[in-house]
Design brief:
Helices cover 74% and strands 0% of the residues. It is an all-alpha fold. The chain has one domain (11-169).
Length: 178
């Protein structure tokens, strides 16, 4: 074990809370899937232009727009939950690595989901503005760029956890330069 100590007592409650919020987001998301937005809220996040976002909003009836608003509101809770869960999981994984492993890289990986959550916050603000009727060309671009980077950072964090977890599980983590 290296000198990075992290308590894992919050991981299970955070994992369960994340799953519950994902289930709720999925319920809200069902109403957002149309021909114009086949991937629901993701189509809205990645629309990229004012014309595309307006087409999506035009395809959503009042209940769908309400679902979109509820989904975005709930996503503010979700970004805290997944950001914290992945941050702590990366720290815990890094602490489980052999002492000669590169703990510094693990600490960097642990901050990626925090950065992703911050980008998600900005993205949600742009999407809420659009949902409320803002006609600003910049907002869809902000949402697109933030969403793209956010998903990349989360993907890298999850990949780190899977690769290190598999290596530890298989007992094959060898000495590597830090």
């Amino acid at each position: 074990m290296n000198n990075l100590t992290v308590s894992g007592r919050w991981l299970w409650p955070l994992a369960i809370a994340n799953l519950l919020v994902i289930a709720m987001l999925s319920q809200f998301g069902a109403a957002l899937k149309t021909l114009v937005s086949p991937h629901g809220i993701l189509s809205f996040e990645f629309a990229g232009t004012l014309n595309s976002t307006q087409a999506i909003l035009a395809a959503w009836d009042t209940p769908a727009r309400t679902s979109a608003g509820l989904s975005l509101g709930l996503d503010y809770l979700f970004l805290v939950l997944y950001g914290l869960f992945l941050h702590l999981a990366c720290l815990k994984m890094t602490a489980a690595l052999p002492e000669d492993s590169s703990a510094g890289k693990g600490r960097v990986m642990a901050w990626m989901p925090v950065a992703a959550a911050a980008l998600d916050f900005v993205e949600n603000g742009a999407l809420v503005g659009l949902l409320l009727g803002a006609h600003n060309e910049t907002l869809p671009k902000v949402a697109l760029y933030c969403a793209s980077i956010k998903f990349g950072l989360v993907g890298v964090s999850i990949s780190y956890l899977l690769v290190c977890g598999a290596a530890l599980l298989l007992g094959s983590l060898k000495r590597y330069p830090g």
